[in-house]
Design a protein that fits this description.
single chain, two-stranded antiparallel ribbon, 2% strand
């Protein structure tokens, strides 16, 4: 009975093929942060004022492309179903976006609002992919799901956002990470957590 209960509280969407999950997790975080820093510095040195190249492209490369290539190189199989809850998530996001654009239309620079929406969608996808999906699944190979969620949330709040004020990370990003992690674990899908994360980012942008 206890073993059955334990298994139900676990999540396992990665086939490690014998790799040590903690070493993979540390390598993944280091690779993500270093590649993001390197890309941002590279575009800064080039004095490129294009916000897509300065913000969105580094995010896509360091949070999505590089982690996927890393998993492939390590021979780790990812069984995430990207289509799960996608329809309901899209309905929620479209309804929010219509309301958001109508209510806050006077605060927008119409030339940039759609860039920010697209940028925050990619930011949310990337951060949820690494710090919710991959990190929780890796940690859950060694720890129970509650501890895995807590550790991944602390990493998200205090390591990924280490350049932000400690109080903001403690009072805002840590609770946010715990909520997003709970959504992910409950649904075993990134769709809803990505939508909630994007909604949060867009609201914070206005505030």
């Amino acid at each position: 009975m206890e073993m059955t209960k334990y298994k139900k509280n676990q999540i396992n969407l990665l086939d490690m093929n014998g790799k040590n999950p903690l070493i993979v997790a540390l390598a993944l975080i280091a690779l993500n942060l270093l590649s993001l820093l390197a890309l941002i510095m590279t575009f800064s040195v080039l004095n490129n004022d294009n916000p897509f190249l300065m913000m969105t492209l580094p995010t896509v490369i360091s949070f999505i492309i590089i982690p996927k290539l890393f998993l492939k190189y390590m021979g780790i199989e990812d069984r995430l179903d990207v289509k799960k809850y996608i329809k309901s998530s899209l309905v929620i996001f479209i309804c929010f976006l219509a309301f958001y654009l109508y209510i806050f239309r006077s605060k927008f620079d119409t030339h940039f609002i759609f860039f920010w929406i697209i940028n925050y969608v990619f930011v949310s996808i990337g951060e949820e992919y690494i710090y919710r999906h991959l990190l929780i699944n890796l940690l859950a190979q060694k720890f129970n799901i509650v501890l895995s969620v807590v550790i991944s949330s602390f990493v998200f709040a205090f390591i990924l956002h280490n350049n932000e004020p400690f109080i903001a990370n403690l009072c805002v990003r840590l609770p946010l990470a715990l909520i997003l992690s709970s959504i992910y674990v409950k649904t075993e899908s990134l769709s809803l957590s990505v939508v909630v994360h994007t909604i949060y980012n867009l609201i914070v942008m206005i505030i």
